[in-house]
Design goal:
The protein is globular. The protein contains five helices and no strands. Helices cover 78% and strands 0% of the residues. The chain has one domain. It binds protoporphyrin IX containing FE. Protoporphyrin IX containing FE binds next to α1, α2, α3 and α5. The site of protoporphyrin IX containing FE (HEM) has 22 residues, from α1, α2, α3 and α5.
Length: 116
């Protein structure tokens, strides 16, 4: 598949994952014990799109082994966002929002600027 298709799928993953994390936090605010099924489904689909399209772009951009640090950092943040709905229950809602926004901004920065 061409790079542009992977990029589109990667960005689709960003959108779905961020909607899902936002939806999860709103469900928590509303006092729900579990988020709606759609919110959980979007979380899984978003994460899957991000990792598959991420590795697709790594191949298309000829990024070889060993991967640069920005890729490892993105994989680490991907894992953190994967566990976000679980571990953020221990944090206040405000802290959860700030952390989620911060993680998304850092991971987008890494993808655009590839600083190291
Ligand atoms: C939560 C996780 C992630 C988010 C929110 C995210 C977001 C982004 C964004 C916004 C871009 C910039 C796209 C552009 O240049 O137009 C990008 C680029 C990129 N991401 Fe991710 N990403 C995530 C995880 C990953 C993972 C896990 C990998 C690798 C396995 C990865 C690999 C890449 C690559 C290779 C690029 C460069 C694309 C290019 O230069 O054309 N990303 N990412």
């Amino acid at each position: 598949m061409p790079h542009t298709v992977y990029l589109f799928l990667h960005l689709a993953g960003v959108i779905l994952l961020s909607l899902s994390i936002g939806g999860n936090l709103f469900a928590r605010k509303a006092g729900e014990t579990k988020p709606p099924k759609l919110v959980s489904a979007l979380h899984g689909v978003g994460l899957l799109l991000l990792i598959v399209a991420g590795f697709g772009m790594i191949a298309r951009l000829d990024i070889g082994w060993p991967f640069p640090i920005w890729i490892w950092s993105k994989i680490a943040i991907w894992l953190l966002l994967g566990g976000f709905n679980t571990f953020s229950k221990k944090l206040s809602l405000n802290t959860s929002w700030i952390l989620a926004i911060g993680l998304f901004l850092v991971v987008a920065f890494l993808g655009v600027f590839k600083p190291f």
